[in-house]
Amino acid sequence: MSAHLRNESDIAAYVEAMLEDGDARMVPIALRTVAEAVGGMAALAERTGLSREALYRTLSAKGNPRLDTLAALLDAFGLRLTVRPVQAAPSRVARRRSTAAAAAA
Question: How many CA within 13 A on the CB side of residue 27?
Fold first, then answer.
């Protein structure tokens, strides 16, 4: 898989797909795959200022990166964390408003 991660756009699409999957346990594995694609743990350690040991631990199957570590990793990959509304389903607020409007009619 890592051979397909050639640029920031590929990496962003891959990480976003892992996040959309909804399984938080896959995020460290996805980040480790990206780390291997961009030069390995030694290069990532140099870019982030984190030790290789900490990176191996954090990006293991049992890893659970803290938000500051996640931000440092994404920055090293040329990415940033963003938040946006879910587009697939109406929000709870919109459903409440439509329910209230229907009840008032």
Answer: 19
Query: What's the pLDDT tens digit per position in 29-57?
Result: 999 999 999 889 999 999 999 999 999 99
Cβ proximity of 9 and 38 under 8 Å = no
From the CA atom positions of the chain, what is the Rg in Å? 18
Query: Distance (Å, rounded) from C-alpha 72 to C-alpha 12?
Result: 15
Please tell me the pTM assigned to this model.
0.71
On whether the CB atoms of residues 81 and 70 are closer than 8 A, the answer is yes
User: Alpha-carbon distance 25 to 61, whole Å?
Assistant: 7
C-alpha–C-alpha distance, residues 83 and 68, integer Å? 16
Please report the pLDDT score of residue 92 as a whole number.
63
Domain definitions of the chain by residue range:
2-104
- List of residues 6+ apart from 5 with CB closer than 8 A: 11, 14, 33, 34, 37, 38
